[in-house]
Amino acid sequence: MSNRKTITISICALNEEKNIELLLRDILNQQFKDEFNNNFELKNIIVVSDGSIDRTVEKVQSFQNIDKRINLIINKKRI
């Protein structure tokens, strides 16, 4: 059993089609280390599209095909 620390990142998105691709790309390319130079493993990225009416959902879905750590929750109405 590994003692490696893991990170889950949650993103709330409302009409972020212009920004979400760059944000996901930057997160996926990030190296996660703490102040003691210990590595962390990126376990999940959870994107919550909260009533988006633009192409936010489609953009995130395209990234899901690339990386299975990306999870999408779609709220039809803004909560």
Summarize the SSE layout with pairings.
Blueprint: E1 5-13, H1 20-28, E2 40-50, H2 56-64, E3 70-75
How many beta-strand elements?
3
Percentage of residues in helical conformation? 10-25%
Provide the β-strand percentage band: 25-35%
- Distance from first to last alpha carbon: 39 Å
Low-confidence runs (pLDDT<50, min 5 residues)? none
User: In oligomeric terms, what are we looking at?
Assistant: single chain
* Structural category: alpha/beta
Structural overview:
The protein is an alpha/beta fold. The protein is built from two helices and three strands, in the order E-H-E-H-E. A three-stranded parallel β-sheet has the order 1-2-3, covered by helices on one side. Helix 1 links the parallel strand 1 (5-13) and strand 2 (40-50). The mean pLDDT is 90.
